[in-house]
Design a protein that fits this description.
Pfam families (chains A, B): ATP-grasp (PF02222), PurK_C (PF17769), RS_preATP-grasp-like (PF22660)
CATH architecture of the largest domain in chain A: 2-Layer Sandwich
Strand content of chain A: 25-35%
Oligomer: homodimer
GO molecular function (chains A, B): 5-(carboxyamino)imidazole ribonucleotide synthase activity; ATP binding; metal ion binding; phosphoribosylaminoimidazole carboxylase activity
CATH topology of the largest domain in chain A: D-amino Acid Aminotransferase, Chain A, domain 1
Number of helices of chain A: 10
Mean pLDDT of chain A: 95
Largest interface: A-B, 37 and 37 residues
Radius of gyration of chain A: 20 Å
Helix content of chain A: 25-40%
CATH class of the largest domain in chain A: Alpha Beta
Number of domains of chain A: 3
InterPro entries (chains A, B): ATP-grasp, ATP-grasp_carboxylate-amine, ATP_grasp_subdomain_1, PreATP-grasp_dom_sf, PurK, PurK_C, PurT/PurK_preATP-grasp, Rudment_hybrid_motif
Protein name (chains A, B): N5-carboxyaminoimidazole ribonucleotide synthase
Number of strands of chain A: 21
Family (chains A, B): Belongs to the PurK/PurT family.
Chain lengths: 369, 369
């Protein structure tokens, strides 16, 4: 089967890596001829935000999918009209692309998400109470396009673009659940994962799986995942990012209609990874078992501040000596501050052992140039 | 690092698949522009048996290795002379390529291997007793180039080429141990695996890991692996195929200086796979832990008799429904009788469960056209 992926970054790379278990052809559209997927796929140089490029790319593919949601969705609608299979479908990608539509989707389908108001960038009649979060309607990614407005004084920093202003949740934990659905309607979730952010970079720092949550919280999350996948009305793999607040209530922060950083530890931590599951949704195959093998976690390898240029990984050899520790680099030659360059997965027999290992590894490795 | 591999078959493919965890460039030399590695590497079309082709291919590589042992070894000696890194080294590849040299190597280093005599293809003074095994000096592969001569009548079938005639072992089990060594001299073995052959095809049918052997047999095997790796005097990954005879004695059948079919279940069955370990030998990295996660096994997917042409896998969807079961196809478009097209790995909690699963899967899948 000819599988076409919009975007050639690390998610596409790890997807192809896993899907080499099967006999398909992988085609990738990316503007960067040196991207992470360039040498392991049939590569087309082009802009996945450009209508013509996406339309042309999709013509001879059996299925078209994405590894980044910021793609030209009009072209995807047109491909669907032509009878092409697009997974996830254009409608849900469009909904998720635009924060305003995404928030309205949650509201409409009774999926708990923080209260919000729509801001057109010019209004000075803001009703929402301080502190609140401003999320740009489009273009946000990896912590970009999101800011907290604490008080009236902060209002001067307000971006003057279409955006969502939403209540700030008093966060106890950030959680994620990954759910997949195939065209036959079969669905399967991965165990809930705890995401620990790097506050300086506003970027995922590490994952802990399974999350330390009560069965009551688990039930809230299961209900959210079920509602979401029903409402989305699309095959595909989705990562629902959640807040657990200090009163024990779960809120949807946002959803990614694709493979997600919060599922990387499934590569070695679960019977099958998110990459395998995504493959199965693209081919409408029986979904894979997602059982966790004990405790697993992931540490992101992010370009250190003040280093740009040809990447060097300091301390990686020490990491390779550790048992049940797995290095995953993304084939990126150039580092820059905050750039995701790779990650390290770890298996452990307890949460304590896991955190100890992750924290120890963090002291060993530096991504410099 | 520029890693050059002679041969672009499934072993190379699974090696590259695993090594996509790191930031190297993979280059492959193979005569077939549609080989398993063609689209996932920097591909050079050429003959790995041709002196000029191998020499040219090696020029700009940081390390040169093999995924098949039938390569032009003179070119590898020349590359070494030029200061190139060749792993495993040309000397041990040459020794293993030629059954006569290989048998003499075992004898010289006191490694138990069945008694033998050298046959030049014309002599009629055969001293060895019936039944015996004839192994062609060169060109044997995957059960080809080996035959059993049971009695005087069979002598008419004797190949008239340089070969080894060796005592037929009264086999209780066929076993394999995979051992790796890096340039720092660190060595590590994988757990011993039982290989069950398909008698009709004289080809590996399935693996069972760990092997059901006594600690005394384990000690014999450990001693053999230790002697072998010392005598080989080369970094690299080696698979030593063994016979356990009915008196409890272990004999070396033959050794492969490369990744091996008897190690495929390490992909999901062990903390790290043979592919990861091989990578580490090529880059002189700390060797990976090889602990087994319970019981694991592998079933080869081999082209069915009477089917040639565009491959179809019957029953694969049923297999994908089974928990802890992993399909690995080799990206080969054409099947033919006996061709290795893929394999299926299985995890289990006991040997009985493992055998049950493997046998059940065998009833589900057929490789046809």
């Amino acid at each position: 089967m000819k599988i076409g992926i919009l975007g050639g970054g690390q998610l596409g790379r790890m997807f192809i890596q896993n899907a080499l278990n099967y006999d398909d052809e992988f085609h990738v559209l990316d503007p960067n001829s040196d991207c992470s997927c360039a040498y392991i796929s049939h590569f087309s140089q082009g802009n996945f935000n450009n209508y013509e490029d996406v339309l042309a790319f999709g013509q001879d593919k059996d299925v078209i999918s994405i590894e980044i949601e910021h793609v030209n969705v009009d072209a995807l609608f047109e491909l669907e009209k032509q009878g092409k299979k697009v997974i996830p479908n254009a409608e849900i990608i469009k909904t998720i692309q635009q924060k305003i539509l995404q928030k309205e989707f949650y509201k409409k389908h009774n999926i708990p998400s923080p209260d919000f108001e729509i801001f057109d960038g010019t209004s000075d009649e803001i009703k929402i109470k301080f502190p609140f979060v401003q999320k740009l309607n489009t273009g946000g990614y990896d912590g970009k396009g999101v800011q907290i407005i604490k008080n009236a004084e902060d209002l001067k920093n307000l971006w003057t673009e279409d955006s969502v202003l939403e209540n700030l949740v008093d966060i106890d934990k950030e959680l994620s659940i990954i759910i997949a659905k195939n065209e036959n309607g079969e669905t399967k979730t991965f165990p809930v994962t705890e995401m620990v952010a790097d506050e300086k970079l506003n970027l995922l720092d590490f994952n802990i799986c399974p999350a330390d949550i009560s069965s009551e919280v688990q039930s809230q999350i299961d209900a959210i995942a079920e509602k979401f996948i029903k409402a989305a009305n699309s095959a595909g793999l989705f990562a629902i990012e959640l807040f657990l607040d200090k009163n024990g209530k779960v809120w949807v922060n946002e959803t990614a209609p694709r493979l997600h950083n919060s599922g990387h530890q499934t590569q070695e931590g679960n019977a099958n990874s998110q990459f395998e599951q995504f493959y199965r949704t693209l081919k409408n195959l029986p979904l894979a078992d997602t059982d966790a093998f004990g405790f697993s976690g992931m540490l992101n390898l992010v370009g250190e501040q003040n280093y740009s240029g040809k990447v060097k990984y300091e301390g990686l050899e020490e990491v390779l000596k550790l048992p049940k520790t797995y290095v995953h680099l993304y084939g990126k030659t150039e580092t820059k501050p905050g750039r995701k360059m790779g990650h390290i997965n770890v298996l452990a027999n307890s949460r304590e052992e896991l955190l100890e290992k992750l924290n120890y590894i963090k002291t060993l490795v530096r991504v410099i140039s």
